[in-house]
Every structure is written in structure tokens, then in C-alpha cells.
Design a protein that fits this description.
The chain is mainly α. The chain is built from 20 helices and no strands. Helix 9 packs antiparallel against helix 10 and helix 11 packs parallel to helix 13. About 10% of the residues have low confidence.
Length: about 450
């Protein structure tokens, strides 16, 4: 007999029933204090056993209980196998489950904090590692946290410029160091909150860098860990950012419905912190990409219009750094990608060509992604000459501009397959050899 959906999600997060119940009660207490539920529900192991029972019917939770369950599991109660009357969902096996790894602080005792290779501590911290690792009175200083925060910002900026292939290893080392500080350092409550926020920032960035490097399984694990941390600390900003990243990855994995769900859940969290318009614009275009991937033209058009309406309201002092990439060029590019997924190749080519002209030449990764999509759209529109031109520019960014993105390379593979039937056209044969040399 198969496991219930709720049990499957709980076990994928490496939680016992008792641990999950403790976390649910903590979350319920916070939501009640914030007024997000009318009455604080209480959770017990016996109650969870009934929800996870392999026999029917399973009891349907009360409204306040449903709010807590859905926020904790990041699923609707229906997806968790709980329905009025106790019937199962029509196809519970179709429920996508994002499987996280154990939290780093939970697994730290099982593996050395810093091993050789990609787990080495950051060079500028290496000299202090031996001294503090065994210290019983290691007091964390404000400037140490600020230095790490600046490092996190620098890595995000490098990703926006060149891509994440070369960033996930050092970011992982920084994240391990932050958890080392949390677990073994001495600090007050305020600094502790900063450390946990910094860990969340590094974790979701690590997920994004892994995604850009083509490490999709690792990316989903880090995103799930970041989302768990955000939920347990009530960090709606981190939840919004992480779910936005998850929605983008889901599109690349051809999971359009999952992308829509992530984007809409991100919008719910954005409302909780009254997010500025750059955030709401980003989340709207993420939703549009999900609709485009499943071929839902009507809802895609609506989300695109909402994205542009929000974007045109301008910038705000509260705009988080993870939305700074969303300039006009990038939003035009993202709309062009939607049009391409909808099969509107001529319109997509026009938008992507416009975006390529608007792109900041210093940001080679975003420009390279745009050029790859433009080349694909041009093939679909029968414009082989423009596809060749865009592809040569994309290759040039990889060879000379320092672009380091597995996603961009993967896009070149798609272009290669699209151009292959036209190998006799002018310049195509030589270009196919160039692509193979780059993606080898």
C-alpha cells in the first residue's frame, strides 16, 4: 500500500512525526501572534497519524489548521491527501514533491566542516579556522557578519554578470562557515537573527548558482532548504525570492504547472511584506512563464500585462538586490521567452532582438541567454541568417567575455539541433562545428 501524500512530503524532508508536530505548533503560535489565523490550532502526533493513515477516510482539518498545514508543507491540503469526505485526490502520484536535503546544521556532525577541494573555507577566513574551530569562547563580531554579507552581495552581482558555474563551490564554503558561526559562536539575539538571515541568503543563492550550473537536483535541494528556513523564521522576503527562483527552474524542467504554483505562492508571501513593484513585476512574469510552458495563452497574456504594469510604476528604495537585474531589456527578454514557448515565433524574435540591443554588454550571461533564445526563435520563423548571427555572438560571449553558465551552453545545444536540418545553408555547417566545440 502506498504512503499517504503528507507522509511522503514529511519523510522527504527528513522529519519524524514528532519533529513535524513540534514545528507545526511553533508555526501555529507565530501565525496566531501575527493575526494570520483566528485561533491557534494545536497539533499532536496522534492527529498527524490520522492524516497520514493509509486507510480512509482521513479527517479534514479545520480552516485555521489548513492555513498552518499549507504554509508548513508548501502544498494545498488537497495535495496532501486531505479532502472533504476523506477521498483521495484523483491522481495523488502526480503531486510534485520537492525533496530537500537535511539542513546543513543537522548534518554537520556527520561530515567534516571543511574537507579538501570545494569545501575549503574561504581564503580570507582560512587563517582563522584552526584558531576558532575548537574555541569555547568564540565571540562573533558585527564586522565579521557584515564582511560575509558583502561577500554574498558580491557573488550575486558576479552571477548577474557572468553566470553561476564558478560560484556554487565558494558559496557553499561560505554557507558552511556561516552555519559554523551559528552553531559554535557566541552572539546576542539580534546578531543571531542576522546570521540566520545571512544563511538563508547564501542558501537560496547557492540554489540559483547550482541551477545556472546545470546541477538541477542540488538546486532543488538548496531551494527547499532555504524555503524551510524562511518558513520556520517567518522570513517572507526570503520565501518570495526562493519561490521565484524555484518557478524559473520549474520552467526549464518543463514543469509549467509547478512553476505557476510556486509563482503564486511567492506572490502570497510578497503581499505579507508589502513588496515593492519590482518584486511583484518579477513574480508576475515568472507566473507568465509557467502559463506559457503549458500553452495557456489567456493567462499568460494576463500575467505579462500585470508584469509590465507593475514594472512601469518604477523603482523603490525598498527594491531588494535580487530584483536589480529586472531592467527593461530583461523584462522584454522574458516576455520574448514566453512568446517563444507559446509558438509565437515571429513576435518572439522581434522582442528578443529588441532585448539584445538593450542589454548591458557587461552582463554577458543575460545577454548570452537572450541571444540563444533569439537564435531559436529565428529558426522557428525561418530566418536562418539571423539565427546564425545571434549564435555567433553567443559563442563569442563564452569565449571572450567570461560568461560561465551551463544554461547558456544548453541553449546552444538546442540551437544546434534546430540548425542541423539547415546544414547546407550559408555558414551553417561551420557554425555547427563551432557549437560542438563549445558544448563538448
Amino acid at each position: 500500500m502506498s504512503r499517504s501524500p503528507m507522509r511522503a512530503v514529511r519523510e522527504s524532508r527528513n522529519r519524524t512525526q514528532s519533529k513535524a508536530v513540534d514545528e507545526l505548533n511553533s508555526l501555529a503560535e507565530r501565525l496566531a501572534a501575527e493575526g494570520r489565523v483566528s485561533k491557534r490550532p494545536t497539533f499532536t502526533v496522534r492527529q498527524m497519524s490520522k492524516w497520514e493513515s493509509e486507510t480512509r477516510p482521513r479527517p479534514y482539518p479545520h480552516p485555521d489548521t489548513r492555513v498552518v498545514l499549507e504554509l508548513y508543507f508548501q502544498r494545498s491540503v488537497e495535495e496532501l491527501g486531505l479532502r472533504p469526505g476523506g477521498e483521495d485526490p484523483p491522481d495523488s502520484s502526480a503531486v510534485p514533491v520537492v525533496t530537500p536535503v537535511p539542513l546543513i546544521e543537522q548534518s554537520a556532525a556527520a561530515v567534516p566542516l571543511f574537507a579538501r577541494g570545494d569545501q575549503d573555507p574561504p581564503p580570507w577566513l582560512a587563517q582563522t579556522t584552526t584558531d576558532v574551530a575548537s574555541s569555547a569562547d568564540w565571540k562573533i563580531a558585527e564586522d565579521e557578519v557584515e564582511l560575509l554579507r558583502e561577500a554574498a552581495d558580491d557573488m550575486d552581482a558576479q552571477d548577474q554578470q557572468f553566470g553561476g558555474n564558478r560560484l556554487w563551490r565558494p558559496t557553499r564554503a561560505h554557507l558552511l562557515w556561516v552555519h559554523h558561526m551559528i552553531d559554535r559562536g557566541i552572539y546576542d539575539e539580534q546578531l543571531g537573527q542576522q546570521l540566520h538571515a545571512l544563511a538563508g541568503k547564501f542558501t537560496t543563492s547557492l540554489g540559483w548558482f547550482s541551477y545556472d550550473a546545470g546541477l538541477h537536483t542540488q538546486a532543488r535541494q538548496y531551494f527547499s532548504e532555504a524555503l524551510n528556513a524562511a518558513m520556520l523564521t517567518g522570513d517572507d522576503v526570503l520565501s518570495s525570492r526562493t519561490l521565484s527562483n524555484m518557478a524559473r527552474q520549474a520552467v526549464d524542467l518543463n514543469k509549467g504547472r509547478e512553476a505557476i504554483r510556486f509563482a503564486r505562492l511567492a506572490q502570497t508571501h510578497a503581499e505579507m511584506w508589502s513588496a515593492p513593484t519590482r518584486v511583484t513585476a518579477l513574480l508576475a512574469i515568472r507566473e507568465a512563464q509557467g502559463h506559457a510552458r503549458v500553452g495557456d495563452r489567456f493567462n499568460c497574456e494576463s500575467a505579462i500585462k500585470r508584469a509590465w504594469k507593475e514594472w512601469e510604476r518604477g523603482t523603490d528604495d525598498r527594491d531588494p538586490d535580487w530584483t536589480t537585474f529586472l531592467n527593461q531589456a530583461e523584462l522584454v527578454c522574458l516576455e520574448g521567452m514566453c512568446r517563444l514557448d507559446l509558438g509565437q515565433t515571429a513576435r518572439a524574435q522581434k522582442l528578443l532582438a529588441q532585448s539584445e540591443k538593450l542589454q548591458d554588454v557587461a552582463h554577458s550571461r543575460n545577454r548570452g541567454m537572450c541571444l540563444g533564445r533569439l537564435a531559436t526563435a529565428a529558426i522557428g520563423a525561418g530566418d536562418i541568417d539571423h539565427s546564425v548571427d545571434a549564435t555567433r555572438k553567443a559563442i563569442g560571449l563564452i569565449r571572450t567575455a567570461g560568461m560561465s553558465s551551463a544554461r547558456a551552453v544548453q541553449q546552444l545545444k538546442i540551437v544546434h539541433d534546430g540548425l542541423a536540418p539547415h546544414h547546407r545553408a550559408r555558414g551553417v555547417g561551420d557554425l555547427l562545428e563551432e557549437i560542438r566545440a563549445v558544448v563538448a
